[in-house]
Amino acid sequence: MTNLSFLKSVATWKFWKELTIMTLGMFIAAAAVYYFLMPSKLVVGSISGLSIVLSAVLESAGIKFKVSAIVLIINIILLILAYILIDREFGVKTVYTALILGPMMEVWDKILPYQEILRDGSTSVMGDPWFDLICFVLVLSASQAILFSINASTGGLDIIAKIVNKYLHFDIGASVTIAGAIICCTAFAINPFQMVVIGLIGTWINGLVVDYFTSLLNRRKRVCIISGDSERIRKYIVEDLVRGCSLYEVTGGFSGEKQTEIQALLTNDEFNALMKFIKSSGINAFITAGNVSEVYGLWVHKEDQKAIKKSRH
User: Fold this and answer.
1) Which of 27, 46, 100, 243 is surrounded by the most beta carbons within 10 Å?
2) Do 247 and 262 contact (CB within 8 A), yes or no?
3) Phi-psi region of 63 (alpha: psi -120 to 50; beta: other; left: phi over 0)
4) Residue 68: which of 108, 102, 107, 35 has the closest Cα?
């Protein structure tokens, strides 16, 4: 990327919006690791979990190494792989998110050290490792899904999962689970069997929840419309919503009349706008709609929609 193109990208609303999303997402992810994993040394399949294991092993050998520092070192190695094996945008964004995870854990340590929350002799913020696990998975999975939606990640395990997803074509949730399960097994070095099993279960749940949140964020409406006024509907979809659509000639099984069926993929907001247009225009139409969680190929994003609309006027 040249200096000029970089400066142009920095000047866009998209750049600052995504930077804000990445910063807030990582601040939340850092809190999940710091408060729900570190006190109990619970190792859920993540680079943070692996770092906890390595920190404990090194400490037993008389070498003091902070978890946040190990997270930073491992992420640097994985970032090089992300840049080479995935794509430039993902690599650059993940450089930022991965490098701020360790420092943000230090920020939480300054704001509210977990030692002040723990009860006497307890190693669990929530009072039970299972509750710690549930809280960690829910918070981290939401953060992961948000970052995946803008082609970024929390770094670490997400990089490994993205590589598995790209080259082995597994769902992103399954990729998270596979990579995480391998890391979980390293916890046998510091944790009893029961804690390792809890970590493995957490890793599996994490994969399911990531898939669930990702499908929510990527959800689209597949809309099928049959109407005698199909041309007006088509023009509204193409010109106002700036979406493509497909036209099919269909024959009514009851009436035997030939009509045109329109099929389109829309966001929820666009679907609501279409329904409002059809209702306010008094158009008679038979409409079915279903949810689609994944879309491949050409998809016009909001920034492109605005540019297309501007070029038409």
Assistant:
1) 46
2) yes
3) beta
4) 102
pLDDT at residue 2 greater than cutoff 50: no
pLDDT at 1 over 50: no
Picking from 178, 200, 217, the residue at the C-terminal end of a domain is: 217
**CA 210-273-217 angle, 5° bins:** 5
Contact 132, 61 (CB under 8 A): no
226 and 85 housed in the same domain: no
Cα–Cα distances (Å) from 211 to 46, 61, 101, 169, 262, in that order, read: 16, 39, 22, 14, 30
Beta bridge partners of 247: 262
Q: Which domain holds residue 99?
A: 3-217
191/210 same-domain check: yes
Q: Which of 79-83, 108-112, 200-204, 206-210 is the most confident on average? A: 108-112
What is the band of 46 on the pLDDT scale with cuts at 50, 70, 90?
low
Query: How confident is the model at residue 274, as a pLDDT?
Result: 94
Residue 36 half-sphere exposure, CB side, CA atoms within 13 Å?
Answer: 21
33: which 2 tokens? 């690791």
Please give the single-letter amino acid code of residue 308.
I
Number of domains present in the structure of the chain = 2
Q: CB atoms < 10 A from the CB of 118, how many?
A: 15
**How far is residue 54's CA from residue 48's CA, in Å, rounded to a whole number?**
10
Q: Are 94 and 79 in contact (CB under 8 A)?
A: yes
Alpha-carbon distance of 161 to 177, in angstroms, equals 8
Q: How crowded is the C-beta side of 60, counted as CA atoms within 13 Å?
A: 7
Instruction: Report the alpha-carbon distance of residue 237 to residue 306 in Å, rounded.
Output: 14
The Cα diameter of the chain in Å comes to: 84
Neighbours of 75 (CB within 10 A): 25
